[in-house]
Write a structure and sequence with these properties.
The protein contains twelve helices and five strands. By secondary structure, the chain is of the alpha/beta class. It has two domains: 157 residues, P-loop containing nucleotide triphosphate hydrolases (Rossmann fold, 3-Layer(aba) Sandwich); 104 residues. A five-stranded parallel beta sheet has the order 2-3-4-1-5, with helices on both faces. Helix 4 links the parallel strand 2 and strand 3. The longest helix is centred in the middle third of the chain and has 24 residues.
Length: 278
């Protein structure tokens, strides 16, 4: 897994590993569970890896500790997850397991999707976090931090991840390419309906940024098969895309930026037929 988009986080954790100043509790926030799962496992292996002599965000993947973690049977690493909800008795069992002395000096427990905890379970965990032990590290992970008790959040060091798993990136890229292509097709028949189509789908800034990115790519690719008339329209589209991206970077409301782009393309009667050939 490539964690390059979270390089700042990795540098911070590397410094923590080198100075041996690990927090007693981490809260990992990420919309992509697959990505955050891999990140957390990499962090845990970096802590326990027998070959990580330089104490970096690194794991050899071949020592006994790394192999045991990968197979889910490392004695000092506990993972708690549930398809439905995490209950109080599961937290109590975890506490009991953690009370046994560590083999190698540290114990780490990971509670995945803590939004799924019942109120009783959350309160039980909170008591545990309020009285941390030196040799126990908690890692909690969630997609939606607003669903987590503020008292739990306040007792954890937050790690906000922005990266995505490759599978998710490919899927999302394919979906946005389809949206851009469909917009162009609809625009050639009923421009007003094309605008309604896009505005109905794209609601958040990240999606709107991707829309402009792929529209720009599609426009640029069309340049090489264009005629003189197409070039005029290509220039107009690229100019409006660049203006939209500039507004987004200036934190102008993303929906307003999208609306402005769509309706100025319509009002200026820009012909997008060249995109059907690109």
């Amino acid at each position: 897994m490539n964690f390059s988009k979270d390089e700042i986080v990795i540098k911070s954790l590397t410094n923590t590993l080198k100075t041996n100043k690990l927090s007693h509790a981490y809260l990992v926030i990420c919309e992509d569970s697959l990505y955050s799962d891999e990140f957390i496992l990499s962090f845990v292996k970096a802590i326990f890896c027998l070959e990580n002599k330089n104490k970096e965000f690194f794991s050899c993947e071949s020592c006994n500790n790394c192999r045991s973690i990968n197979h889910g049977n490392y004695v000092d690493f506990y993972k708690l997850t549930s398809d439905t909800s995490i209950k109080k008795d599961e937290i109590q069992t975890l506490k009991s397991d953690l009370s046994v002395k560590s083999f190698y000096g540290k114990k780490i427990y990971w509670i995945k999707d803590i939004e799924k905890m019942t109120e009783q379970a959350a309160n039980s965990l909170l008591k545990f976090l309020e009285e941390p032990e030196d040799d126990i590290i908690a890692i909690l992970s969630c997609k939606n931090i607003s669903a987590v008790l503020p008292t739990i959040i306040s007792r954890c060091q937050q790690i906000k991840l922005v990266g995505q798993s490759e599978d998710r990136e490919v899927t999302e890229n394919e979906e946005m390419i389809k949206i851009v292509s469909e917009y162009v097709k609809r625009y050639s028949r009923k421009p007003h309906m094309a605008n309604i189509y896009v505005l109905g789908l794209l609601k958040v800034k990240e999606e709107i940024l991707d829309f402009f990115k792929y529209l720009s790519i599609k426009t640029t690719n069309s340049y090489y098969e264009s005629n003189r008339y197409d070039i005029v329209n290509i220039s107009k589209v690229q100019e409006k895309v660049l203006l939209a991206l500039s507004d987004l970077n200036a934190n102008v409301n993303a929906t307003l930026v999208l609306e402005k782009f769509l309706f100025t393309v319509l009002l200026d009667k820009i012909n997008l037929e060249f995109l059907l050939r690109g």
